[in-house]
Amino acid sequence: MSELVDRPARPVDMLIDRFLPRFDVTLIEHAVADADVATTWQALRNLDLMQVHTPLMDAAMFVRGLPARFGRAARPEPPPQRLLLTGGGPDLEGWLSLGETPEREIAFGAVGRFWRPDIEWYDVSGMTPQQFAAFDEPGWGRIAANFSLRPYGAGRTLISYEARTATGDPRVARRFRLYWALVRPFVRHIMRAALTSVRRSAETRTG
Q1: What's the CA gap between 146 and 99, in Å, rounded?
Q2: Is there a domain that residue 131 lies in?
Q3: Percentage of residues in the chain having pLDDT higher than 70
Q4: Nearest-CA neighbor of 108 among 132, 75, 140?
Q5: Count of domains forming the chain
Q6: pTM above 0.85?
Q7: Whether the predicted pLDDT of 204 surpasses 90
């Protein structure tokens, strides 16, 4: 009789690992949906980040935008009506799509000076994921984020949301770590709110 041998699972190639494998800080949040992967994937592809709201999140976004409101003579650009992850990535200044693996992962990235009171975004229009991975201009930082799905038992799905940041410049890295210590709780709250939105949408589709 042959013996059962436990073998480690083969690693799965992740887009976020391909385009930002080394980083200064990361934050990962998870949620479990009572829905299969295919249903949860459809919910994720229809996620509109502009519709993700909580009182704390709305207050944080308002406070975050105060320097821009009072520091510029011109009125700031209005936010987009919708903010979808698919169809080329988030339609938001500074952000680009890093691709998707069906029913597995959606990844996106940004380049900017996001530790400043008034964020300055790098023009990434026309930038490819490969160029994003190789970007190393001093004084700028990169963010890579993804939503990923995995089967979780029978008919359930583990939804993960990760955000990584890399600066590359030691001076900028120190400034960013101070900034990160302040904003990390708010970033975690926003990520959890987005995961809750996906989970509820998937479970509604199942029900």
Answers
A1: 10
A2: yes
A3: 73
A4: 132
A5: 1
A6: no
A7: yes
The Cα 146–Cα 38 span in angstroms is 17
Give 157's strand partners.
Answer: 33, 151
For residue 188, pLDDT over 50 is answered with: yes
- Would you report the helix, strand and coil content of the chain in percent, each value rounded to 5? 35, 25, 40
Question: What distance in Å separates the CA atoms of residue 118 and residue 144, rounded to the nearest whole number?
Answer: 20
CATH number for the domain harbouring residue 118: 3.30.530.20
Using DSSP, state whether 150 is helix, strand or coil: strand
Whether 8 maps to a domain, the answer reads no
Give the tokens for residue 97.
Answer: 């799509």
Provide the residue range defining the domain that includes 87: 23-67+82-206
Confirm whether 6 is domain-assigned: no
Element at 67 (helix H, strand E): helix 66-71
CB atoms under 10 Å from CB of 166, counted, come to: 20
DSSP 154: S
Q: Could you tell me how many helices (H) and strands (E) the chain has, helices first?
A: 6, 6
For the stretch 69-115, pLDDT in tens is: 445 544 555 555 556 676 555 556 678 899 999 999 999 999 999 88
DSSP output for 156-180? -EEEEEEEEEE---HHHHHHHHHHH
Q: Which among 161, 141, 138, 131 is positioned nearest to 149, based on CA atoms?
A: 161
Does some domain include residue 5? Answer: no
